[in-house]
Design a protein that fits this description.
The protein is mainly beta. It contains no helices and 11 strands.
């Protein structure tokens, strides 16, 4: 089973960019579909983006489509979330998640989670 550690969060001005990273441990990383979720203060955790095991298929929440890009490097056991044109409403704790199946937008289907990294977008 993999373990996940996110990094790359921080404080950025609106319109700026950040790149989040998720480092995975374990030998079976390429067997997992990966996703990013986020939770803003006072709100439920929501889907952001997902990527298939081989990286050939991606999906995004409508709120980030065209601004965020998810990618993975199976050799390095890494997943990335490139976030451009950031908005104040993107402020949240961002979580990396893994599941041994197809990609999904449903967080209940993801069994493995990181601890999250804080992203704060200021106006």
């Amino acid at each position: 089973q993999v373990q996940l550690v996110e990094s790359g969060g921080g404080l950025v001005q609106a319109g700026g960019s950040l790149r989040l990273s998720c480092a995975a441990s374990g030998r079976t990383f390429s067997s997992y579909a990966m996703a990013w979720f986020r939770q803003a203060p006072g709100k439920e955790r929501e889907f952001v983006a997902a990527i298939s095991k081989n990286g050939g298929s991606t999906s995004y929440a409508d709120s980030v489509k065209g601004r965020f890009t998810i990618s993975r490097d199976n050799a390095e056991k890494m997943v990335y979330l490139q976030m451009n044109s950031l908005k104040c409403e993107d402020t949240a704790v961002y979580y990396c998640a893994a599941r041994s199946g197809l990609t999904s937008k449903e967080q209940i289907l993801y069994a493995i989670w990181g601890r999250g990294t804080q992203v704060t977008v200021s106006s």
